[in-house]
Design a protein that fits this description.
Oligomer: single chain
Strand content: 15-25%
Order of helices and strands: HHHEEEEEHHEEEE
Radius of gyration: 32 Å
Largest sheet: 5 strands, antiparallel
Shape: globular
Structural class: alpha+beta
Number of helices: 5
Helix content: 25-40%
């Protein structure tokens, strides 16, 4: 009788332990399912969802893009002072001192022996060196026309940059004596844009001083084109 009671006790304990072992994993899975439901994930799809989210985050970081105006217009002083993607340190009646806040992704390339700088962030291709001499605005347009007739780097759609595009090149501190990335040729201390300032002048960007001005004085030419 005693042996039967001991055997029954062991059997009872085994049953209890088995039941407890089943209860705790079930309750743990319920907690996991509850947490997944809170974050909007199915317990059956949580792995793939998390992978998809991680891939999504990586893809958005890999392809940043900032669109800039590419058509010319008459830019007033107040419009110049309120441009986006620009940090302005000082304003005055001729323009402002400041720099671009765009996180550029520059890459220098040589195409058919012609050097260019591609900016994946803005989708622009820049003439790496630009003109070797400074000139008037009207002469600058003739210089661009000759560049397109030549087909620099295999393209014939080079143009003067808009004010927004030209300002995007301004760095926050001097690099190789100019406020511009050293991937660009360091001779052009100031370049023309294709934008007017009323009937009084044309907008230009100074890389020597890190500022923007409207006037009719001579400037260098740094052509740009939009990537297709």
């Amino acid at each position: 009788i005693i042996k039967m009671e001991i055997k029954n006790s062991r059997l009872f304990i085994s049953i209890v332990l088995f039941i407890l072992g089943c209860i705790f994993p079930i309750s743990e899975s319920k907690v996991q399912a509850r947490d997944l439901d809170y974050y909007g994930l199915s317990p059956y799809e949580s792995g793939t969802q998390i992978v998809k989210q991680e891939k999504g985050e990586n893809s958005t970081k890999e392809i940043p893009h900032t669109s800039l105006r590419s058509s010319y217009c008459d830019v007033s002083l107040s419009q110049a002072h309120s441009m986006s993607n620009v940090s302005i340190q000082k304003k005055d009646s001729n323009g402002f001192y400041g720099h671009s806040t765009i996180n550029h992704r520059y890459e220098k390339k040589s195409i058919d022996g012609n050097d260019v700088v591609i900016d994946d962030t803005t989708g622009l291709m820049w003439h790496q060196s630009g003109s070797s001499d400074y000139m008037s605005w009207n002469t600058a347009k003739d210089w661009i026309r000759n560049l397109n007739n030549y087909g620099y780097a295999g393209y014939q759609d080079w143009r003067l940059p808009t004010l927004e595009e030209a300002v995007s090149l301004l760095e926050s501190y001097k690099r190789s004596s100019l406020y511009i990335d050293p991937l660009f040729h360091g001779e052009q201390w100031g370049i023309w844009t294709g934008d007017n300032f009323g009937l009084d002048g044309v907008w230009s960007v100074y890389f020597s001083l890190g500022n923007v001005r409207w006037n009719i004085k001579n400037r260098y030419v740094r052509p740009v084109r939009s990537l297709k």
